[in-house]
Amino acid sequence: MERIVLAYSGGLDTSVAVKWLMDRYDAEIVAVTIDLGQGKELDDVRERALAVGAVRAHVVDAREEFVRDYILPALQAGAVYEGHYPLATALGRPLIAQKLVEIAEMEDAGSIAHGCTGKGNDQVRMDVSARALNPSINVVAPARVWGMTRPEEIEYARTHGIPVPASVDSPYSTDSNLWGRSIECGVLEDPWTEPPEEIYALTRSPAEAPDDPAYVELEFERGVPKAVNGVAMPLTELINSLETIAGAHGVGRIDMVENRLVGIKSREIYEAPAAVVLHAAHRALEALVVPRDLERLKTDLARRYADLVYDGLWFTPLREALDAFTAKVQEQVTGEVRLRLLKGDCRVVGRKSPLALYEPALATYDEGDRFDHAAAEGFIRIWGLPVETAASRSAGRRAPAPAGVSRDE
Ligand code: ARG
């Protein structure tokens, strides 16, 4: 008998998929749920998988791995898609695919399956990642094949005795993990409509947030966040505690229209309180310690990194090479950043580092200034020489003599 390892979330699609795959392929289904920090969605997910007909159901806690091998490199690379989206879902998919492939190999299954639809980015990330890890594995995406509408799926569930999850009553489609949460569908599909308050789960409305600011001091060591307000903690815990503090102050709500890889523009709402704070802090610290030319290149490559994560290219030489570049830069990223959280606003208000390239004696306008003001003149003369030359030409005048050379009248 054929065996298929299915990524099971406990929602309607994957619940229907268990039965549909069994019938369609005459296969037994092994359900796998990967814990990436989605919280209460995991409650009795194992029991539900077995109840809908899976022969076995595994729940794999991959939170540490997610934080260490996916979130941290993306944070250090500055990976934020199209300027706003910190890529929570996009970073989770390659890890889910990796676990599915591992379990398929252990279970001696020839196929893996997932609940992604045919018009999203997630299917691309899942399929490409799985093939990168095991090119001979077969990938099935029932929701891309069965052609059922949502009401038809509910009908299918009823007629096949599949318990319909309570989440079907929600008009929204959500996905969440440690790095953030996404909300789609319903009224949100109109990009002109303001998101209703009810869609949010991690953030308080900025209007209802405390009137007094919260200050957060974040310590980084070689690009790794180590402590919040002087308390050292593992990164998973640090992300959780930032989510709580920032969420309470209404920080981390994102409302954008983004370009999907499959050619569609879509309106997306995200909540990513910890990611927003950590990216702001990390960027501010790099600004203090990284030389200008390197910072420029890092910024350019951050966009490439965000795109590759978004586009499902995690398991590629491109990502590995960019990680190596990023790791080199992180050697300098040690220090502290102070942020003020107030009614949805997250602002860096202080930064310091033993490796700072900021030099008070050069920067100051007060006493103790060691900057050579006189040297500026010669520098500017040569810096502006091409501009001056072109300006003289177009004015029909003769070119100036090179700086430092006197003109013969
Ligand atoms: N637009 C985001 C992305 O492409 C969020 C996708 C949410 N996925 C989901 N299955 N609900 O990464």
Number of helical segments with 4 or more residues = 14
Structural class: alpha/beta
Major sheet details: 5 strands, parallel
Q: Report the end-to-end length measured between terminal Cα atoms.
A: 97 Å
Helical residue percent band: 40-55%
Largest beta sheet: strand ordering = 3-2-1-4-5
Task: Give the averaged pLDDT, no decimals.
Answer: 96
Low-confidence stretches: none
Question: Would you list the SSEs in sequence order as H and E?
Answer: EHEHEHHEHEHHEEEEEHEEHHHEEHHH
Task: Give the strand tally.
Answer: 14
Radius of gyration: 26 Å
Work out the strand percent: 15-25%
Ligands, deduplicated: arginine
Describe it.
- The chain has helices spanning 12-25, 45-51, 63-77, 88-107, 122-133, 142-145, 150-159, 235-248, 273-289, 292-310, 317-330, 360-363, 373-383, 385-394, and strands spanning 2-7, 27-35, 56-61, 111-113, 138-140, 173-177, 180-184, 214-221, 224-228, 231-232, 253-259, 265-271, 335-342, 345-352.
- The chain has 409 residues and is an alpha/beta fold.
- A five-stranded parallel beta sheet has the order 3-2-1-4-5, sandwiched between helices. Strands 10-9-8-13-14 form a five-stranded antiparallel beta sheet, covered by helices on one side. A four-stranded antiparallel beta sheet has the order 6-7-12-11.
- A hairpin with a 5-residue loop joins strand 11 and strand 12 (265-271).
- The structure holds arginine (ARG).
- Residues 89-90, 121-122, 173, 175, 182, 184, 268 line the site of arginine.
How do you describe this structure in short?
With 409 residues, the chain is α/β, with parallel strands linked by helices.
